[in-house]
Design a protein that fits this description.
flat; 8-stranded mixed barrel; 26 helices; alpha+beta; 30 strands; 6-stranded antiparallel sheet; 19% strand
């Protein structure tokens, strides 16, 4: 930038010139404004006081005229001057009591009547008047003095315009702000002070307001002051122009050189700038040279830090990152001999020391074993910043043991714990700015360590279960896939065990999820303890675990391992004050016989596990191909069952219950049936199990209850009655709170009488939670349903429930009736059951009766009712109606 020629070529020059002008003009302008404001304020105050005085004087003159007129009007008859004499004061005189065609007289009479106490009346202006007319009233004092009103002359009342000062306007308004006299247009838009004239005592009307203001056409000019100020301002600008030009020329030359040097620094050139140091600009040049050198060093450090950050965000190689840090430290401070210490495993006393080789600048790593207690103690060091080390400092002890002669150390912290440190060997004092750069480099090591720890933690959390600490499903699948790849290369065998806890849900529901979680942790510990060396254990989800045996032996060996795992869980487990005894079902699939892919093996082991559960729980089962077929069939049938329930394709059959005394049908048991359109009849055992596993058991049970009650009501309406209809309720339904609401609503909807609906529960249900089952059954009985214990003698060894449970009917399982004709022991057992039920006051039903001999024996022993194919097979509702009708006809004939 050149300064020859006009200074306006420079932006800085124009800016300085403008500032000089502002510095000169602003005080002058402020002084003029303050003076002008003070003069204007004083003038306005004087004018306003004059206006008020003028308004007051004018109001008093008007009052005097009104008073004079009123006195003249009040003179007695004969003493008053004639109208001709009063002509300058009054326009006309009108008697108020005399009716005439005069409009003015009528208006005066009307106004006087409206204001009987007023001595002044204001009439609207006539056609020839511009303003309202004012009349003075004399009230009647008798016949000698009739009432009349004299209209005042406008010129007399308001005076001549020549009486007011030049340039002054007045305006008179009544109490309602209506103009009485405003010759200058009402002073609109002018803020005029006013003065009120009180007329109430003298004339009996409200006050008039008098205002005075300058004439709006008058314009005040004050130009002389502005012209004077313009001359002063012009002279000031001229003087400022000359002074600013001189100063700008002295300033812009060194600034031009500094600007050029700054552009060179921006382009990467850091050559020094030489300016004479006898002025401030010379000192600025010297400071600029020092700053440029520091910028060059710091930019190099920033490039190194950026590379470190890139490594942290991409390839997190801690050794490479520390090498970059040490390399840059060697460049900017080769005499400092910086070292980095990384506490790799403080609990084990494992320490990594990184040094920079003096000849090559490459980072060298050495791994040492130190005192673990010392490393853990240093890890709790919370001091920040560089520390000068004394001989007894723990950091000095550690570094000397590692072969370093330290002078300073910088602990590097992650989450308030020292995980690494930077040590300097240089004993000489270093530039604080250089120490700051070295600190920034060292702190990048802390960032890298924190990122490495975070990544390791995220990887651990992504692949491990938070509750048990075992690998999770994702890790298990990958580990199994890797084991299968290795087995395929070595022709080895890999076994997968799918382990599921039996009846774990009641633990969560009854004891709470906290106890359930504690049980899962203990189960994980026991399984990991019993697993053979080299085995892999993972929590697959919920109460399911996966064991992978990469070197599987023969089936017998795998069976022994499964039995060991099952036995470990069968031992009593204490959680808090609760002692539990668990069982598990184990499914086993082996590579390559049962699959070569991880997903296939896991699915097949899962299928085998479910087969183990259906086989009685607490067992282990090897996968077979037919299980896969059965599983596929089950999935397809479950989908078809869902459709059948939605479209009500199931139907109900009923098996009669016969009275042993007369062979009469007294009740029926409802049995759900499903005729598949392709597979044909599906066993109730199969589709009930599918409904339980697929979450359809509530829908199936509610349909069965509704259908049974509907048929029962239809039979009752047809005139053939039976005492009750029995419906089976599964354990899943009894566990659900929905059964209470649905049972109550169904009984109410079909108007079932007490005892007409019987709910059957199997004896195995009672073993789960006797007190809870008893409470639930008591609620169901309260709705009017009776309770029957089905399959008595097969599910629960204790007879305590017979005393505690609220039930009405005991059904003897068919397994007790098979050989009562041939076996005396069987007969003795059945007779005992019948006698026990009779002693408890319960109804006894024998189900599964297959011969007439069994019927005869049961009748002799006092069994109340029998049910079986020898008497009646299950039948549809219409067929049962016909059968009941025939019994009714036979009874009528007898």
């Amino acid at each position: 930038m050149r300064v020859e020629g006009t200074f306006l070529k420079s932006k800085l020059g124009r800016r300085v010139f403008a500032l000089f002008c502002l510095a000169a003009l602003l005080p002058v302008t402020a002084l003029w404004l303050l003076t002008r404001g003070a003069v204007h304020e004083e003038r306005e105050r004087t004018i306003e006081e004059g206006r008020i005085a003028l308004a007051k004087a004018y109001a008093l003159s008007v009052f005097e005229r009104l008073d004079t007129a009123a006195r003249l009007v009040e003179l007695p008859a004969g003493a008053a001057p004639s109208l001709d004499t009063l002509a300058p004061l009054f326009e006309s005189v009108h008697e108020l009591a005399v009716a005439s065609g005069d409009a003015t007289a009528g208006a005066l009479a009307e106004a006087a009547a409206e204001a009987p106490a007023a001595r002044l009346l204001v009439l609207p202006p006539s056609a020839s008047d511009a303003w309202p007319r004012v009349a003075v009233v004399r009230r009647s004092g008798g016949t000698a003095q009739p009432a009349f009103a004299a209209v005042l002359s406008q010129k007399y009342l308001w005076g001549s315009p020549d009486e007011l000062p030049a340039g002054v306007a007045v305006c008179v308004r009544d109490a309602e702000e209506r103009p009485l006299f405003c010759p200058q247009g009402g002073l609109s838009g002018v803020a005029a002070p006013s003065w009120p004239l009180f007329l109430k005592p003298a004339f009996g009307i409200d006050s008039w307001t008098f205002a005075a203001a300058p004439d709006p056409t008058a314009v005040e000019r004050e130009g002389s002051l502005l012209r004077t100020f313009g001359l002063v301002a012009a002279g000031t600008v001229l003087l400022v122009t000359l002074l600013s030009l001189v100063q700008i020329r002295r300033t812009l030359v060194p600034l031009e050189r500094l600007l050029g040097r700054t552009r060179q620094v921006a382009s990467g050139s850091y050559a020094p700038l030489h300016l004479p140091r006898d002025t401030e600009f010379g000192q600025l040049g010297a400071a600029f040279d020092e700053m440029a050198a520091r910028i060059e060093r710091q930019l190099g450090t920033l490039h190194a830090l950026a590379e470190v950050d890139r490594r942290i965000l991409t390839a997190l190689d801690l050794d490479a990152i520390i090498g970059l840090v040490l390399g840059r430290a060697h460049q900017i401070a080769p005499g400092a001999r910086m070292s980095v210490l990384h506490f790799r495993e403080p609990e084990a006393g494992l320490l990594d020391i990184y040094r920079c080789a003096a000849d090559s600048g490459q980072a060298l790593r050495e791994r040492l074993h130190c005192d673990p207690q010392l490393l853990q103690r240093l890890g709790r060091d919370k001091d920040g910043g560089w520390r000068l080390l004394a001989a007894d400092d723990p950091w000095h002890v550690l570094l000397r043991a590692a072969g370093i002669e330290p002078h300073r150390v910088l602990p590097l912290q992650v989450r308030q714990r020292s995980v690494a440190a930077v040590a300097l060997d240089a004993a000489a004092d270093l530039d604080p700015a250089l120490l700051d750069e070295l600190r920034e480099l060292g702190e990048r090591v802390a960032v890298a360590v924190a990122a490495k720890q975070r990544d390791d933690l995220l990887v651990f959390q992504a692949r491990h279960d938070a509750l048990t600490g075992l690998p999770n499903r994702f890790d298990a699948t990958e580990t199994l896939a890797a084991a299968l790849v290795r087995a395929a290369n070595t022709a080895g065998r890999v076994a997968v065990m799918f382990i599921d806890l039996d009846r774990f849900k009641p633990i969560n529901d009854g004891l709470g999820h906290a106890v359930g979680d504690a049980v899962l942790v203990e189960v994980a510990r026991l399984l990991a303890r019993e697993l053979p060396p080299g085995g892999y254990l993972a929590r697959y989800g919920g109460d399911e675990f996966i064991a992978v045996l990469a070197h599987a032996g023969d089936p017998a060996g795998l069976g022994r391992i499964a039995a060991t795992l099952s036995a470990a869980l069968a031992a009593p487990i204490r959680v808090g004050t609760t002692e539990l005894q668990l069982q598990c079902s184990i499914g086993i699939a082996v590579h390559p016989d049962d699959g070569t892919q991880a997903e296939t093996l896991l699915r097949n082991a899962d299928i085998a596990m479910y087969r183990a559960k259906r086989s009685g729980r607490g067992q282990y089962v090897f996968f077979e191909e037919r299980m896969n077929v059965e599983a596929a069939t089950s999935i397809r049938l479950l989908a078809d069952l869902r459709v059948a329930l939605r479209e009500r394709r199931l139907h109900m059959e009923f098996q009669p219950r016969v009275d042993t005394r007369d062979g009469r049908i007294v009740a029926v048991e409802a049995l759900a049936r499903w005729l598949h359109p392709v597979e044909g009849p599906i066993s109730p055992v199969l589709f009930v199990r599918l409904a339980e596993e697929g979450g359809l058991i509530d829908a199936l049970g509610e349909w069965a209850l509704d259908e049974a009650c509907r048929c029962f009501v239809n039979w009752r309406a047809a005139g053939v009655g039976i005492s009750s209809v029995s419906v089976n309720v599964s354990s899943h339904q009894l566990d659900s709170a929905r059964i209470e609401d649905y049972l109550r609503d169904t009984i109410a909807r079909y108007r079932m009488r007490p005892g007409e609906l019987e709910i059957e529960i199997t004896e195995s249900v009672i073993a789960r939670d006797l007190s809870r089952v008893a409470a639930r059954l008591e609620v169901l009985r309260g709705f009017g349903a009776s309770i029957a214990i089905d399959d008595f003698g097969t599910g629960y060894s204790s007879l305590q429930y017979l005393r505690l449970l609220p039930f009405d009917t005991l059904k003897i399982d068919r397994s007790f009736l098979l050989d009562i004709v041939e076996s005396e022991a069987a007969r003795t057992l059945v007779r005992a059951i019948v006698a026990m039920g009779d002693a408890l006051g319960k109804l006894i039903v024998a189900e599964g009766v297959e011969s007439n001999e069994q019927v005869v024996l049961l009748r002799e022993w006092g069994c109340h009712f029998v049910q079986g194919y020898v008497l009646y097979a299950p039948m549809g509702p219409q067929r049962l109606l016909e059968e009941l009708g025939s019994w009714t006809s036979k009874a009528g004939q007898r």
